[in-house]
Amino acid sequence: MRRKVIEMKKRKSSARLLEFETGRVPIQVGHNHSDESPIRFIDLFCGIGGFHEAARSLGLTGVFACDIDEECRKAYHHNYGLMPYGDIREIEVDDIPDHDLLCAGFPCQPFSIIGDMAGFADSRGTLFFELERIIMAKKPRMIVLENVRQLVSHNGGKSLAKIMLSLRRMGYWADYRVLNALNFGLPHKRERVIIVAFRDNIDSFPWPIRSMPMKPLSALLEKSPGVKHFVSERIRLSRFARHTPKMTPSIWHENKAGNVSSHPFSCALRAGASYNYLLVNGERRLTPREMLRLQGFPDDFEIICNDSQTRKQAGNSVPVPMIRAILERVINAANCQIERKRA
Ligand SMILES: C[S@@+](CC[C@H](N)C(=O)[O-])C[C@H]1O[C@@H](n2cnc3c(N)ncnc32)[C@H](O)[C@@H]1O
């Protein structure tokens, strides 16, 4: 059964600085950003709303979202007052309101080193063609897509080339870059390919490459994480037998070969991995709140799902400050173009 879009604006509205973006001034984008922002976005494969969190902080208005996962939909609705639709394959384009900006972090498992690298041979990879269907029908002015870094090299670069060609054939100016959340203030090494596309031609896109100072790990670790997050003595001793840390606090990472390293930041959170592969100081798992903070979600994002669901959701999400920096530039680039045309 189809769900209908409900807009309730539950949480505080626009232009709120994210907790992990301290020291930054509110950004003025576009012409007229008030609560009634004229810039409307949709959030496909929305998860728990990393795109929504970033877009809302810039004063944009979410008008549609979808995700097949019921728990994600509940968390999204609870926090953003917008009830996502379900499976994108069942959505009629007529159900999607007109919008200026299409955001989508389409499923990455088919392209990820954690997945089987099947790409477009995997039915989840073909979900890109659902995006194509929606873009063709709705022709939004701006598009921002996100996926794993491995998409760049997948199938010798052919998968990404296919996506870029598809966007260009639909009349879009498109470009991509691999960006790392570490450069956007988060103590989280998370590399993602970001694709931007514009319906109107632009000369070039000014990718945000400046580094924001990294929030120290100590600022986002919980003071009293609770005993349930500590690993067994056996696991703790096994880690300490293989590794001596050079700093505290640190996040210990165990790779597939069983080698352990530690850093003043977290390696990429993952949705499906054993939750022992990242350990704070070699002795406890990250709490769901810490994982959300590592993605840049502010603490007023309310956790309503259980620990295991929230860990999966945070592992699947996008780094909010990184997306915010991109959206800011995308909107400015599109507006500049409009201004130039008018002149
Ligand atoms: C990489 S995650 C995107 C996370 C999101 N950007 C966020 O910030 O939380 C991909 C999402 O696609 C959803 N998904 C997978 N297949 C889908 C489908 N057929 N229709 C709608 N959503 C789907 C998954 O449930 C998952 O939440």
Verbal overview:
This protein is of the alpha/beta class and 343 residues long. The chain has two domains: 40-214 and 319-342, Rossmann fold, CATH 3.40.50; 217-313, Alpha-Beta Complex (DNA Methylase, Chain A, domain 2). Helices cover 28% and strands 16% of the residues. The protein contains nine helices and twelve strands. It has helices spanning 50-57, 70-80, 127-138, 158-169, 217-220, 233-242, 288-294, 307-316, 320-342; strands spanning 40-44, 61-66, 101-104, 142-148, 173-180, 188-189, 191-198, 251-254, 260-263, 266-267, 278-280, 284-285. The chain has a six-stranded mixed beta sheet with strand order 2-1-3-4-7-5. Strands 9-8-11-12 form a four-stranded antiparallel beta sheet, covered by helices on one side. The protein has a two-stranded parallel sheet with strand order 6-10. Helix 1 (50-57) links the parallel strand 1 (40-44) and strand 2. Helix 1 (50-57) crosses helix 9 (320-342). The longest helix has 23 residues, at 320-342. The protein is globular and about 55 Å long. The model is unreliable at 1-35 (pLDDT under 50). The structure holds S-adenosylmethionine.
What is shown here, in short?
The protein contains 9 helices and 12 strands. By secondary structure, it is of the alpha/beta class.
What is the strand and helix layout of this fold?
Blueprint: E1 40-44, H1 50-57, E2 61-66, H2 70-80, E3 101-104, H3 127-138, E4 142-148, H4 158-169, E5 173-180, E6 188-189, E7 191-198, H5 217-220, H6 233-242, E8 251-254, E9 260-263, E10 266-267, E11 278-280, E12 284-285, H7 288-294, H8 307-316, H9 320-342
Parallel strand pairs: 1-2, 1-3, 3-4, 6-10
Antiparallel strand pairs: 4-7, 5-7, 8-9, 8-11, 11-12
S-adenosylmethionine binds next to helix 1.
